[in-house]
Amino acid sequence: xxxxxxLGDPVRRRILELLAAGERxxxxxxxxxxxxxxxxxxxxxxxxxxxxxxxxxxxxxxGTRRVYAVAPDPLREIxxxxxxxxxxxxxxxxxxxxELARGRRERRLQEEADRDRPQL
Length: 120
Hints:
Blueprint: H1 3-7, H2 10-20, E1 24-25, H3 26-37, H4 41-53, E2 57-62, E3 65-70, H5 72-82, H6 90-116
Helix pairs in contact: 3-4
């Protein structure tokens, strides 16, 4: 399965978002995903299986639980593929950063001018 096929599903994307914050037991993932998407624990398990079989998550046993974590390699591959397209949004982000810095500078200068102004 192609990486974008795996990530094209909103449930699998949400699972990865949950795991991006740190390792989680399958049951903990299931509780959140079931509540948000209204699917069964069995369906959550199938999504975890797809993520695992395509290398997006790693699993380790911890007693009777299965603990999942994000596996970085497939995400690095996606990031490398996206490099071809960064030119379409990075200049816009650079311009935004410049405007934000300009706004901070103007506010700082205004605050300094207000402090230097005599109080009546």
